[in-house]
Amino acid sequence: MSVAPLAIAGLGMSGMALASAVISKCERQGEEPNLLLLDPRQSYQRDRTWSYWSTHETPFDAAISHRWHTWKVGANGQYVQASSEEIPYVRVDSGDYYRIGLDALTRSKALDLRLGTSVKALVPRERRVDIETDRGTLAAKQVVDTRPQTLPPGILLQHFMGWEIEVAEDHFDPHVVTLMDFMPTRGGDIHFFYVLPLSKRRALVESTHFSHALREKKAYEAENAAYLRNHLGIGQWHTVGEERGVIPMPARPAPAIARDPRIISFGLHGDTSKPSSGYCYLQAHRQAARQAGLMPGMEALEQDAVMQHAPARTPLPKWLDGVFISFLEHHPDQAPTAFLELFKRVEPNALIRFLSDLASPQDYLQVMKALPAGTMLREALRYALTQSS
Fold this sequence. Notes:
- By secondary structure, this protein is α/β, with parallel strands linked by helices.
- Helices cover 32% and strands 29% of the residues.
- It has helices at residues 13-29, 94-106, 217-230, 281-293, 298-302, 315-330, 335-345, 348-355, 361-370, 373-388; strands at residues 4-9, 35-39, 49-53, 64-68, 70-75, 78-83, 89-93, 112-115, 119-124, 129-133, 136-145, 156-166, 176-182, 190-197, 202-211, 238-249, 263-265.
- Strands 1, 2, 8, 9, 10, 11 and 17 form a 7-stranded mixed beta sheet that branches. Strands 6-5-13-14-15-12-16 form a 7-stranded mixed beta sheet, sandwiched between helices.
């Protein structure tokens, strides 16, 4: 059995980001990118939208389809609008993203790209990892695993369903994104709508919840329809696309799975996303660059060198996320006001840096001043006590 130096199990957004970063490093070092790449999809279609504040470039920026410099948040009948000329909020078209990634992968003859191959298990051996798939067993010296994992019970979840719609007349302001339009909180369920205007007659409208339990598809559909009619005043629309998603929002990282050091978790279930917001795109690309930087080289991997795991995020942002998620879990009725105050009182670029895990000490100070001090101090104490127990 041939043994690849490095395999990536799962070629979604984060897997492609990592493959791109590894290929770029190999090219700089004059090495062949001898990678084994596996994904269950036979082909790729546009299946989702990724949006984020573009604080710096990524290798996939050609997939950005829209840019906005103004956004708003609404709660309790109030709306706050903010802008940044320097840092746009952008939309990445997943279809273009996959095309860019696959074009890069298929240009190299050193890559072993196996689409339509589902990884069933990763089995560590003495000097390799056996990769059991639905098409037989493969092997690699090191494996980066980006596959979806079972969600741990009892954690807060961000879950949503969105429609991309078209209307017959001009209705949407194509210059302003609605990041959060909060609805009344019921039973601890934090509920808001997200509106991404793609033109005056086209938009992505998503019903989004922060809660511990998912909803039936028909419930999201009813919510979207009611919002379009009652809040946006749209009586008729044509649905041209649909997307759903679930993003874990753990107050603290799940206990590490007892895995061989030759297996590295990466991506949405590898502590890459920012739990308090669900942002993952930019974080995944930053982590991909760090992970590729720790790769000892193809020849070294073939000689049994082990690649270290690149932490996704630094301790301070992770701790603050944990405290904020504890706040959301224990005070869900205060969440709409808290988000509104953040966007009202924190300078836009400072808040962008905070939401992008790029905050300075001064940015953190602005954010902390905008949140309810007494409540957040109690949540910090609660979080510290649960951490130590």
